[in-house]
Amino acid sequence: MPGFDYDLFVIGGGSGGVRAARVAASMGKKVAIAEEFRFGGTCVIRGCVPKKLLVYASQYREHFEDAAGYGWQVGESTFSWEKLIAAKDVEIARLEGLYRKGLTNAGAEQFETRAELVDAHTVLLKSTGRTVTAERIVVAVGGAPSVHGALPGYEHTISSNEALHLKQLPKSIVIEGGGYIAVEFANIFHGMGVATTLVYRGKEILSRFDGDIRRGLHKAMVEKGITILCEDVLQKVEKRPDGSLAVSTKAGKVLEASEVMLALGRSPNTKGLGLDAAGVAVDPRGAILVDNYSRTNVPSIFALGDVTDRVQLTPVAIHEAMCFIETEYKNNPTSPDLDLIATAVFSQPEIGTVGMSEEQAAKAFAELEVYRAEFRPMKATLSGRAEKMIMKLIVNAADRKVVGAHILGHDAGEMAQLLGITLKAGCTKDDFDRTMAVHPTAAEELVTMYSPSYRVKNGERI
Ligand code: NDP
Q1: Which of 264, 279, 303 is the C-terminal boundary of a domain?
Q2: Which of these, 307, 331, 338, 455, has the minimum number of CB atoms within 10 Å of its CB?
Q3: How far is the CA of 157 from the centre of ligand 1 (A)?
Q4: Containing domain of residue 315, as a range?
Q5: pLDDT(377) > 70
């Protein structure tokens, strides 16, 4: 790196940035990384990890109820939001420490400051005004909840960021959105006893998922007591003298709530980052444009993770970072493989999915076999919980390949990880059929659906 302060400078200490910095440093590169808030990024500090801890916490109410059917007598239970948030914060601080330690052990220099691009090789460290140069720069600054400034009363609303730090548990909440965050938080708050209403603009929540699973989750959430208003949007949020909020919707409803949360997607964090100065091209949403190797139009500048708005998922950002390392430092050009990403929605019941929905597959293939099971899991028998599990395999009739696998029910996320391997390996339905069941489990249903529930030919169910 003749003439540069560093081989690599990473802006953003989230999942992607930390991985790129840590691995490059461990290879002996001179690396620095700047983070303006806390190391760990969205996933660790205000996303996946704290959210999942809250999901676990919110499930206990049903666990206590279910225990009676299994012979347990559970005494009166109480819940402390304050204790939960404090415990969650301790865990997050521990994880942040591990991220920092990993960087330190690898020899990456850490700057606790906002950093902005000055030109193709120069970064400004805002806290000191110092500039440093690097042969390569990785921008991995992530995203933030999309703002909805046009909504009158927007200033009274919160996002998932604030939801993780509320001083007290609200009595009631209105959540707008029908994606991952809206659905997960609706279940979290409901589980903690908060009167919860979900308002979504489309016909059915979770627009990018399999229709069966979407309808199944909607039904289960309503049966639990969550109100879901589809084909509606918030029109106004007003604060009353007593501090409560009055929410007017386009369809003419007026809802009362202690909190209003918006979960309308996440936007790239590129404002004021100096991308113009460095000549880095962005799309109309502000996402950094990259090629298959995470290269921007400026040869020395790379971008990965949510800031590129490819697929906003932690494992994807980490994978993109590893591909960057392979390509730039191991002479092994590797582009991220974004096909067949298994994913989970930590709703209650949970969704685990990989591959095409039935609707997508019906457009892609002339004929499908759909294997579908809807059943009461054994776990729900003695507890008496009226809970249904849905499992679905979408098979391309032409070559018997399983092109989609979808589960609604307990542990669906765990199962999706393993189904992801089978689909990635190109397994056919015959491979599933000759796999011995693990008994008694819910997952065994995946290998015991021997005849198709129905077929879809030229887009028509027959
Ligand atoms: P999503 O893209 O999942 O959902 C956004 C929702 O907001 C959609 O229902 C969308 O409707 C709706 N919406 C968007 N704009 C408007 C608007 N102007 N008015 C009304 N509704 C609107 O984003 P999230 O914010 O839920 O999450 C961000 C990303 O974070 C996700 O895409 C996901 O990749 C990641 N994530 C992953 C999790 C996981 O892996 N379990 C958990 C949480 C987040 P429509 O569908 O009609 O477009």
Answers
A1: 264
A2: 331
A3: 17
A4: 6-144+267-329
A5: yes
